[in-house]
Amino acid sequence: MQCIPAKRLCNLVALIAALVASVAPQPSSAAISKGDELLVKIRQVFRSHRPPPPYVAYSLVRQQQTEEGFPDFIWSYTYHIWCRTLDRAALGRKVYRGDARGPLEFLRPEFNEARDPGPPTADLFERAPVRPQPVEFVPTPEPSGMPATIGSVTAIGELEYHVTAVNTEGELLHLSLRPIRDPDRNRLREVYVDKLTYELTKVIATDKMFIEPGYEVHPQLYTITMGMLDGRPVVTAIHGVTTDDYYGDGREVDYTFKDIKFPSSLPDWYFDARSYAMHSEQAPL
User: Fold this and answer.
1) 98 by DSSP, 3-state: which?
2) Higher pLDDT, 75 or 212
C-alpha cells in the first residue's frame, strides 16, 4: 500500500470534509421555525394533561338533517356513555323521546372511524390508524406519563406538521398547519389556543363519514370546540361537513358532549358485553 505524506493527508482530509459539508442536507428553516416551536409548546401543554382520568361519563347528542333540510330523526340521537379511557371501551345506552332507555351496547368511541367520535378526553394530536379498525380492536394504551426531562434541554422531536401561518386574533393564537407526511393520518389543519396559556380552544381536523352498507366513505372536516373541566381539556362540540361532492343525508353533522364527569370507579362489567344480560337490573340510567 502506498504511503501518503502527512501534509498531503491533511489536505486530503480537509478536501473530503469540505465536499461532505457541501452535499450534506442542511437544517431547513421549516424544521426550526418559530411557528413549529410554538406548535411543540402547544402539544406539550396538551400532553401535560395526559393520561386522562381512568373513566369518563358523558352524554353524546348527535344531530343531522336530511338532504331536503328536515331533521333526520333516524340518525339524530342521544347516548349516555361510560368510557374506560385506558382502551376506550365503553358502555352505551341510547336515550329515546320521553326519556326511554334502549338496550345496553358495547361501544368504542373513536375519531376517523365508522362510529361516533370521542371520548371527550381523546388525544387530538394522536395519528389516525393506517386502516379502519373494528370495535373489537383494542388500541394501545396511552403512556403513563410525560417523557423525562434532562436538565433544561427541550427536544422538539419529530414534527408531523409545518406551521404555515400564525395570527393573533384577540385573546387567541391561530396556527395554520400542513402535514409533513401522511396527511390522512396527521389530521390537524388549524389550531386555536389561548395566547397566554397555550391551551387548546378550537381545532380543525380532517375526519371521515362512513355510509352503510359497504362503508362508503366521504372526507369530512371537523371543527372541534374545546373546554376545560377540572383543569383538563375536553371536547365539548363538533361540527362536521363533507368536503367532496356528497350532498345526501348528513352532509353536515353536529355532536355535543354534555354532562361530562370523571367517576372515580366504574364496575368492570360495563366493559364486557358478554356480562350485560346478567347485569340488566344493575344497568345505569
Assistant:
1) helix
2) 75
